[in-house]
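F.,

This is the one I mentioned.
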């Protein structure tokens, strides 16, 4: 077993992840086998090796960039966040983001696009348990930088725009010409299962660099993460005017709030955490969730406009919040660059010096706990999207500088390797994204985000390990 398969700390209190110790030299090492060593496995689609998996697991890739949807239009690239819903005859209905930036033109039917010039959005597919595409179509078009989001209890997906681009804001660092855009961006959008989205933004949920959403069915609140690459990020919640399950959809006109640590203004939670760290929290209101910009301010100014309102009231600071998932009263969310730089490791670019944290927010008590903190890049390197298995084990998608893995984090904070991405020639930035278990847990669907991205169905002897 190589060192990447070793736990670097584990200390459990009451309940899954509750009070878990930080990783690194602060805790003792403990070996975890997971599903065993990884080996190259050929894709059932075409025989090419794209993944390294444990013995007994197989996969098929599908709906790659450039393939055709059922209507004959082309699948865009940059596959990102995704959720699976139950479909007929044991199939899964997948709703999948495409994180496309710039005024490159909408895919699919431009008449249904939110902004005819924006190239991001979502696609909806019905697939078998073995990755065979039964139906596919665009479902939300004309949005931009659709990074992650989250599944909703009323059979819908909420897609997040990780940008504030628009004709009222100066160009971002990618070089796109924002003056060519027709609409403001930076919102969340609801995408129902079984029909196309209305393409109406939920403006009261804020205009900022949204990353992901986790829904609490007991209260109707949506918990949202913010991924500001170069600046502090915040953890938010949106309180709709009516419980979405009762309304049958997500309504605009609610209240946006940002998390703060009780008794500690501007708590810097991006830094390394002590063993068993936990915090009492409060929420501060955002008075202007959808700011109007005049004079085309710099993109770096506009992207901080909502978060700055919260920080002025003492909201907590995180480093690049990305994936989030709700499970049994807890929202688990990932701080991609949270923590401290380990000796011998290089600090990542952007805001935050660490290699990743996993946080646990108890919606019923308001307590925030550290669940795991990477001690160094060789153990866990910049976690991104996250999902949860039926057993409560988290699946972490890496977005690291070297080889990228799917890693499992058990409720006892045991970290193990499950899958490694075979390097893609000419595309060193390729990464995993959008992991989600299908109905019954037979299949783990995941995306490879790349210039020519694709989705993948993985199946095998799950009962043999922690998933």
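My design for it:
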């Amino acid at each position: 077993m190589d060192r990447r398969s070793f736990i670097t700390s584990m200390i459990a209190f009451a309940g899954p992840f509750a009070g878990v110790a930080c990783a690194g030299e602060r805790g003792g090492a403990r070996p975890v086998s997971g599903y065993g060593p990884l080996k190259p496995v050929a894709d059932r689609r075409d025989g090419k090796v794209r993944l390294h998996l444990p013995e007994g697991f197989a996969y098929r890739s599908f709906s790659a960039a450039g393939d055709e949807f059922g209507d004959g239009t082309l699948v865009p690239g940059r596959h990102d966040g995704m959720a699976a819903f139950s479909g007929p005859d044991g199939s899964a209905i997948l709703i999948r983001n495409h994180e496309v930036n710039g005024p490159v033109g909408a895919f699919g039917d431009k008449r249904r696009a939110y902004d005819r010039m924006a190239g991001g959005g979502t696609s909806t597919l019905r697939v078998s348990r073995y990755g065979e595409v039964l139906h596919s179509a665009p479902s939300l078009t004309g949005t931009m930088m659709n990074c992650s989001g989250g599944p909703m209890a009323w059979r819908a997906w909420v897609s997040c725009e990780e940008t504030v681009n628009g004709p009222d804001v100066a160009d971002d660092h990618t070089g796109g010409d924002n003056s060519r855009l027709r609409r403001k961006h930076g919102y969340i959008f609801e995408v129902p299962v079984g029909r196309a989205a209305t393409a109406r933004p939920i403006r009261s949920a804020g205009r900022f660099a949204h990353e992901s959403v986790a829904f609490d069915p007991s209260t109707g609140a949506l918990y949202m993460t913010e991924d500001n690459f170069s600046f502090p990020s915040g953890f938010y919640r949106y309180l709709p005017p009516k419980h979405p399950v009762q309304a049958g959809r997500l309504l605009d006109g609610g209240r946006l709030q940002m998390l703060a640590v009780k008794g500690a203004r501007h708590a810097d939670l991006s830094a390394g955490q002590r063993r068993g760290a936990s915090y009492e929290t409060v929420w501060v209101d955002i008075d202007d969730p959808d700011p109007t910009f005049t004079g085309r301010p710099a993109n770096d100014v506009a992207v901080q406009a909502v978060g700055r309102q919260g920080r002025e009231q003492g909201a907590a600071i995180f480093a690049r919040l990305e994936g989030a998932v709700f499970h049994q009263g807890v929202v688990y969310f990932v701080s991609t660059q949270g923590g401290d730089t380990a000796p011998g490791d290089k600090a990542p670019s952007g805001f935050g010096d660490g290699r990743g944290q996993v946080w646990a927010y108890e919606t019923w008590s308001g307590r925030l706990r550290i669940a795991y903190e990477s001690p160094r890049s060789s153990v866990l390197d910049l976690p991104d999207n996250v999902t949860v298995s039926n057993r409560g084990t988290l699946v972490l998608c890496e977005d690291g500088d070297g080889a990228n893995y799917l890693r499992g984090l058990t409720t006892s904070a045991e970290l193990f390797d499950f899958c490694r991405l075979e390097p893609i020639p000419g595309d060193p930035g390729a990464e995993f994204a959008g992991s989600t278990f299908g109905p019954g847990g037979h299949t783990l669907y995941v995306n490879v985000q790349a210039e020519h991205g694709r989705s993948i169905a993985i199946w095998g002897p799950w009962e043999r390990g922690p998933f």
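Residues 3-464 form a domain with the Neuraminidase fold (CATH 2.120.10.30).

Talk soon.
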